[in-house]
């Protein structure tokens, strides 16, 4: 699946420590892999050496059977017939974020899908000491699922409820990549009608010109606010009961580096719905 800006969500990586909330992130990653007929890499990251106990984690085949995408008693080969390629890997690292970064260097991904409250919350994954290292290792997107949020993919049925998306809009960073990726998500997940709320915090006369991808399921609406951008985004997301906040990060400085001390990081720390952070597009 590729858009005007060359974004593709066909290679998905789901890092996990088998902690609280990671099963919800897994459901999102698996559903996207099924709909894009792409690959899903499940990466277990732990500080302690030793083989991971995969029995602790949701079974791909059992999940797909529960979603009525596979018959009972399905074989491993039946998953491949859905057009989905599943791989499982494990890394041991004193710093889990470093383990993810090193894995990404060897196995690039278009989209990372992860819980932000696995044992020790967001800080466990986004250590500032390694934030800049992501610069040359990933230029895709990251979907962060708060551990307290059910997200927009039902873990029991696989049904999608991506009906209300909030996209903050400003001149910098260019919001085009986030808008394009949201369009790709809607095309992939077929949630029915989806309202994309475009939020500009500032003077309404200074709104940047946008290319809005057209899709029969997407309805665009404008909202304006003033004050602190992060506070305005969070307030609007709550007022709209947003299923997703989609934001462009600051270019190719790396999404972890871009989150450090940024509006996106502040939103991530307090959002109660999933947050999609997407690299800005560069010629």
From the structure above, extract its key features:
single chain, 9 helices, 283 residues, Rossmann fold, alpha/beta, 10-stranded mixed β-sheet, globular, 29% helix, disordered N terminus, 2 domains
Structure overview:
This protein has 283 residues and is of the alpha/beta class. The protein contains nine helices and ten strands. The protein has two domains: 135 residues, HUPs (Rossmann fold), CATH 3.40.50; 115 residues, HUPs (Rossmann fold). α1 links the parallel β1 and β2. α7 packs parallel to α9. The longest helix has 15 residues. It starts with 10 loop residues before the first strand and ends in a 5-residue tail after the last strand.
Query: What is the structural class?
Result: alpha/beta
CATH architecture designation of the largest domain: 3-Layer(aba) Sandwich
Radius of gyration: 18 Å
Give a quick account of the main beta sheet: strands, pairing sense, barrel closure: 10 strands, mixed
Q: Could you please say which CATH topology of the largest domain applies here?
A: Rossmann fold
Kindly provide the name of the CATH class of the largest domain: Alpha Beta
Whole-number count of domains: 2
Task: Give the beta-strand count.
Answer: 10
Distinct helical segment count: 9
Which spans of ≥5 residues are poorly predicted at pLDDT below 50?
1-7, 118-138, 251-258
Hey, roughly how much beta strand do the residues contain?
15-25%
Q: Percent range for helical residues? A: 25-40%
């Amino acid at each position: 699946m590729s858009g005007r800006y060359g974004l593709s969500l066909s290679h998905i990586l789901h890092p996990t420590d088998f902690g609280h909330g990671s099963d919800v992130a897994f459901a999102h990653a698996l559903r996207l892999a099924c709909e894009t007929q792409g690959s899903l890499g499940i990466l277990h990251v732990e500080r302690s050496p030793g083989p991971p106990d995969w029995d602790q984690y949701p079974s791909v085949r059992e999940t797909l059977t529960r979603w009525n995408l596979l018959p009972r008693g399905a074989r491993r080969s039946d998953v491949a017939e859905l057009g989905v390629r599943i791989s499982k890997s494990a890394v041991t690292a004193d710093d889990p974020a470093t383990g993810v970064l090193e894995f990404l260097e060897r196995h690039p991904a278009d989209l990372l899908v992860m819980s932000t409250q696995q044992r020790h919350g967001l800080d466990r994954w986004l250590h500032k000491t390694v934030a800049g290292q992501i610069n040359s290792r990933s230029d895709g997107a990251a979907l962060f699922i708060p551990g307290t949020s059910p997200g927009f993919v039902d873990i029991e049925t696989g049904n999608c409820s991506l009906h209300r998306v909030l996209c903050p809009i400003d001149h910098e960073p260019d919001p085009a990549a986030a808008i394009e990726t949201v369009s790709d998500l809607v095309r992939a997940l077929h949630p029915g009608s989806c309202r994309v709320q475009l939020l500009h915090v500032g003077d309404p006369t200074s709104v940047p010109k946008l290319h809005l991808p057209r899709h029969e399921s997407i309805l665009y609406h404008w909202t304006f606010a003033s004050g602190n951008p992060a506070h305005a985004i969070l307030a609007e997301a709550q007022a709209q009961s947003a299923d997703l906040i989609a934001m462009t990060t600051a270019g190719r400085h790396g999404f972890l580096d871009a989150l450090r001390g940024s509006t996106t990081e502040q939103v991530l720390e307090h959002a109660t719905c999933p947050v999609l952070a997407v690299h800005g597009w560069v010629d």
